[in-house]
Amino acid sequence: TELGVERRFVPESCPRAVRPGDFVRYHYLGAFPDGTRFDSSYDRGSTFNVFVGKGQLIAGMDQALVGMCVNERRFMKIPPKLAYGSEGVPGVIPPNAVLHFDVLLIDLWNSEDEVQIQTYFKPEKCPRTVQVSDFVRYHYNGTFLDGTLFDSSHNRMRTYDTYVGIGWLIPGMDQGLLGMCVGEKRIITIPPFLAYGEDGDGKEIPGQASLVFDVVLLDLHNPKDGIAIENQLVPESCERRSQTGDFLRYHYNGTLLDGTLFDSSYSRNHTYDTYVGKGYVIAGMDEGLLGVCTGEKRRIIIPPHLGYGEEGRGRIPGSAVLVFDIHVVDFHNPSDSVSITVHYKPSNCTVLSKKGDYLKYHYNASLLDGTLLDSTHSLGKTYNIVLGSGQVVLGMDMGLQDMCVGERRTVVIPPHLGYGEDGVEGEVPGSAVLVFDIELLELVSGLPEGYMFVWNGEVSPNLFEEIDQNHDGEVLLEEFSEYIQTQVETGKGKLAPGFDFEKIVKNMFTNQDRDGNGKVTAEEFKLKDQEAKEEHDEL
């Protein structure tokens, strides 16, 4: 005669219990005391949805549902006076029938409910939170209140990407995402009137269903965003900052806003080399690389409309904010020339180096970021060249001009006057600016341009006869070489310094041997000042 309620299963967690006025969704089996079933929501494939305590149920069920938790199972014995009484339900429930119900509560909400937010992880740093009109990328698991999964972006291995607060989402999700930080994790519980309402979505979500979204925010930007720059290290000395048209070499780590690495120049052990402001890189990077110093480290945050847009590229998903941590190794402009800084010049600096001079000098060679490439000091010997003869890169030929012995200077050489785009494999990177710290130790004056040998005095009027020692009217290479060597050793003549003696003499002899028969006759023999201007000189 009295209502009987047996709690057959009670979940460990019960944040909320049914109260009069709540709306519930539940499954049930209805049977008579002898076990004969008269009704079942399972057979219909849908829950029974109803308000509690508003007279929409038999009185016994109204009472028995109060205090239930979602996922709780109750067995109820309802006497006739709290069920269908003496009249029953014709054809279904006889008069004065005791009814047994096996009930499983699936869902519970109230018309006064609001979106519930439970944050269970929040990053220590939260420079920005989601606002109305922001575009977000997030992962989620969507479940009903009883824990049944109905959807998951993780299963699709693709984030859900959308604007917030402009009607692209159900109202409850629009509210639930506001104020989130990138990396934050929260559970958003949404009542059906802020979700898919009475009709559901027509697929997975039934009508009047509360929804629970377990969300992690991966990305956040606004279409009005520009790039953001965070300076991490700026050198104390910054004589020059990058401008449009400069060529930069830099290292970088590229990550998404949640820290996922998508690319790194360090892993390739090679800088990224590009022009700036010319459209060779994405627009945000073009802008972010302006105004940097050599050696500077900065973070450049690029919204997708200045990055790879809605489509993304490779490991970069569509609509992704990009974070580049860059380290500028060097930069130059194609219009740059050699830069010379003199650190010490002797007071008696009267003889200056010029083209053709033979120089001996020490140097330390490094990149613009200070990386040492080479040093004559470590080898314990000087570097020796004939200036202007192409024995060094063009920039060094320029940088060694007009030096005096004892002078110390720093010569900065742009790559187009150094080793160019290719560099030197294993030694000098391509497109690298070079820095040479130089000390000139010795200078031997060269000969006038175009000469490999000059006389220190008057030239003998019988020169050919003197060279032709056996007086046969022909001079062989051996005779010619012996004669030149004697003139040099006795101080009567001078060879261009820094070149191989045999090569110079052979070159001089070949120029005199005009018919190429290996012999020089008196008719062939001419001094340089006797040669016609249109003929090639001895050099």
UniProtKB/TrEMBL annotation:
PROSITE patterns associated with the record: EF_HAND_1, EF_HAND_2, FKBP_PPIASE
GO molecular function annotations of the record: calcium ion binding; peptidyl-prolyl cis-trans isomerase activity
Keyword Repeat: yes
Known EC number: 5.2.1.8
Keywords: Calcium, Endoplasmic reticulum, Glycoprotein, Isomerase, Metal-binding, Repeat, Rotamase, Signal
Cellular compartments annotated: Endoplasmic reticulum
Domain PPIase FKBP-type: 21-109, 133-221, 245-332, 356-444
Predominant location category: endoplasmic reticulum
Task of the protein: PPIases accelerate the folding of proteins during protein synthesis.
Native source organism of the sequence: Ptilorrhoa leucosticta
PANTHER family per record: PEPTIDYL-PROLYL CIS-TRANS ISOMERASE FKBP9, PEPTIDYLPROLYL ISOMERASE
Cellular compartments per GO CC: endoplasmic reticulum
Residue ranges occupied by any EF-hand domain in the UniProt entry: 455-490, 500-535
Phylogenetic lineage: Eukaryota, Metazoa, Chordata, Craniata, Vertebrata
Protein name (Swiss-Prot/TrEMBL): peptidylprolyl isomerase
